[in-house]
Design brief:
Length: 137
């Protein structure tokens, strides 16, 4: 009985078999593509932008972590766009020459970003007008 009601709701009769590709099979790839372009692709773009910002912000005396797990400080950064090279000081007598892509984390840049966000947060909380309080003179 329920099957007959469902068939009438779809506009077909119960005796006729359905031909062609079901709508559900077409809907799944469309939803997957939509999910990719709305969720996954923007996240990839944001991650690429953050990585390029991190690598371009390398300066002398920045503390870094390499992809090999070595901590050090940047001694020099090449100014040439073609020569993508930096020198990292690991200890007093040890300096490593490597490409920018070999830097996993720029610890100094992360600290600067945290200080900026904390400064913005403090300025928002210290402003009484933004919290709804009114000062009387």
């Amino acid at each position: 009985m329920l099957l007959v009601l469902v068939m009438f709701a779809q506009g077909g009769d119960a005796a006729a078999p359905r031909t062609g590709l079901p709508l559900e099979l077409l809907l799944l790839p469309v939803l997957l593509l939509l999910f990719y372009f709305i969720v996954i692709r923007p996240a990839q773009k944001r991650k690429e932008r953050e990585e390029s910002e991190r690598l371009s912000s390398l300066q002398k005396d920045d503390e870094v972590l390499t992809i090999g797990g070595i901590y050090g400080s940047v001694v020099s950064v090449s100014s040439d766009k073609d020569k993508d090279e930096i020198v990292v000081k690991v200890s007093d007598n040890t300096r490593l020459r490597m490409t920018r892509a070999a830097i996993h984390r720029n610890l100094s840049h992360e600290e600067r970003q945290k200080a900026k966000s904390a400064e913005k947060k403090d300025s928002k909380t210290s402003n009484p007008a933004s919290s709804g309080q009114i000062r009387k003179a």
